[in-house]
Amino acid sequence: MSNFEIAESVVRGHHIYKDVWSPIVGEEVEVCREPENPHDRHAVALKKAEEVVGHVPRELSRIMFKFMACGGHITCRVTGRRKLGNGLEIPCVYILCGTKTLLAKAKI
């Protein structure tokens, strides 16, 4: 498998989960599909110790949802301190791991 880093992005929804998670620069969290999400059937959640701590921005979630459905794996690495954006956001990079073919299809 190969790695591919997407351009910098953010973790959305931290204002909802700020009592559950205090992100640390360099920390990595799990990225999981969340098909049961009532607001978006292609939602992608970030989890730490099996607890949701944020979400992938909607503009990236559909691609990431499908990437993981095809066997790819994604990790989120915190790159900065939380900031105001679309609610409280955490700067990060999403690291995709998969075959070269799968990664080529996932390029944004």
How confident overall, as mean pLDDT?
A: 91
The 3D shape can be described as globular
Radius of gyration: 13 Å
Instruction: Find the count of extended strands (DSSP E, 2+ residues).
Output: 8
Could you tell me the strand content as a percent range? 35-45%
Uncertain segments: none
Number of helical elements: 3
Q: In percent, how helical is the residue content?
A: 10-25%
Any key phrases for this structure?
108 residues, alpha+beta, eight-stranded antiparallel β-sheet, 8 strands, 41% strand
Briefly, what is this?
This protein has 108 residues and is an alpha+beta fold. It contains 3 helices and 8 strands. Helices cover 21% and strands 41% of the residues.
What report would you give on this structure?
- By secondary structure, the chain is an alpha+beta fold.
- It is built from three helices and eight strands; from the N terminus they run ββαβββαβββα.
- It has helices at residues 14-17, 58-69, 100-106, and strands at residues 2-5, 9-11, 28-33, 44-48, 51-55, 73-78, 83-85, 87-98.
- Strands 1, 2, 3, 4, 5, 6, 7 and 8 form an eight-stranded antiparallel β-sheet that branches.
- The longest helix has 12 residues, at 58-69.
- The model has no long low-confidence stretch (mean pLDDT 91).
Task: Furnish the topology, listing elements before pairings.
Layout: E1 2-5, E2 9-11, H1 14-17, E3 28-33, E4 44-48, E5 51-55, H2 58-69, E6 73-78, E7 83-85, E8 87-98, H3 100-106
Antiparallel strand pairs: 1-8, 2-8, 3-4, 3-6, 4-5, 6-8, 7-8
